[in-house]
């Protein structure tokens, strides 16, 4: 009975040591697992949020570039039907002769140069090319049989021919627009315009945009990456391949399939993993893209936008690592706090003092929190008041700008009424004479009167159009042409200049400035009106408009030979409602508003007082890059 009692007494000693040791050994495991879970959750949420942001931005890019493709196509859609109006084309198709062919060739050559298309040619009802714009070239379409083309068959049925393909003669890809030419109600031939869409790809490459366009057969016809061009975005059946090969739409291209390595749906878009195509990438590692597509209007094509997501993934990995490190730090702090709590629990003698100090600290924190909350509320109220004041100031400034315009128009009202009354009186006289001449049968004189009436109405329309453009509201941004603004300002002041003639010296180069066109015209009107008023009492009136560019800024000087401004008044020139004009001739807002408009456009308006006399106002505005020169043949 006593022998088994010895091991029973030894067993209770084991649990006193193992539970604490076991807890210390197993505690890091759940912490590591939770740290990994927190890091993965942060990675996943960051990646999803980043891809959604890319998708939102991609929708805007998709709409913008899809409309650019539609615009490029629609620019030339009118050209095939235009040939129906040319009598020489119809005569060639009805009765072909060498002389008529040469005339049509020359006409098509000139039309092709003016329109900027690749080629324009005319086919007869059998599909043979009768005349072409490239008749001088060695690879001319002259005499080619193109009856196998789908656009020819569609046009012969009276439908618009739309076709993308690789030329069988030149091997050059292009988009074909065809139209059936009618003569006395029947189709006598087909007009075809070939355009190249290479500029779209070049713009995509310059913008570093990953995009491609697939046609109705699922073949990539336009791509910013040349290695993807003429590849199928979907598997092609044997019948489809045979049909495309027989039509020679893509010449002898193999039409390989563009096969993603991975595909995952993401809302209305897809996440695709495609092989890398950058030669500098070494092993050409696969790249993951966000693929978004949009169907183009008036065609069966689809515009596809590929947005790389590797940057989003790298950022998500960084966020995941930061979240894991933050969780580990928090866990470490919690463990340290727990150990500290245990140490403090052993200090029974100091517990009461510690609780009292803790209560005092909490009370002070509460008081400080209340003070901070009150200060925060006061700060929010001040911010609201400041924003409201800024909004009121902006509205007041806009109203003052509009008031300045209306004040200038009001000062010109008498001259404008005189300018309009003269054409109206002439219209009344000419219309009455036209009625009498028509009654007498004198059609020539009546026609001449009506022509004069038409010119007077156009003149009055230009005056009212200029006033409407000058009076409309505008904003701080925009682009203005200096020469156009000077001409518009002088046109508005033409009645005033006729009553107070002066000599205007123009010594400036035309430039594009970073300001709204109407606001620049308003500034010029105010400065020229001030110069006219300053020189009204003298017989010799000279006005100089001089300008030149300095780095990225343009300075225009408006200088007169008037009596100048007294030194005592110079400091008040740009103050609101300050004017040196007698009576009610001015509100004193012209220079103030002009300086404000210049400052809103990141410029300034200053005044100079030349030693030779007179006054010079110098307007400084930022320069814009010159607009591209238009091709005169495009008109």
TrEMBL record:
Coiled-coil intervals, chain numbering: 344-406
Alphabetized UniProt keyword annotations: ATP-binding, Cell inner membrane, Cell membrane, Coiled coil, Kinase, Membrane, Nucleotide-binding, Phosphoprotein, Transferase, Transmembrane, Transmembrane helix, Two-component regulatory system
Family matches, as SMART domains: HATPase_c, HisKA
Residue span, Histidine kinase domain: 415-625
Catalysed reactions listed for this entry: ATP + protein L-histidine = ADP + protein N-phospho-L-histidine
TM ranges: 25-45, 316-337
SUPFAM superfamilies for the chain: ATPase domain of HSP90 chaperone/DNA topoisomerase II/histidine kinase, Homodimeric domain of signal transducing histidine kinase, Sensory domain-like
GO MF assignments: ATP binding; phosphorelay sensor kinase activity
Catalytic activity, EC: 2.7.13.3
Top enzyme class: transferase
Top-level division of the source organism's lineage: Bacteria
Gene Ontology CC entries for this record: plasma membrane
Tagged with keyword Phosphoprotein: yes
Database matches in Pfam families: dCache_1 (PF02743), HATPase_c (PF02518)
Membrane protein topology class: Multi-pass membrane protein
Protein name: C4-dicarboxylate transport sensor protein DctB
Organism: Pseudomonas cavernae
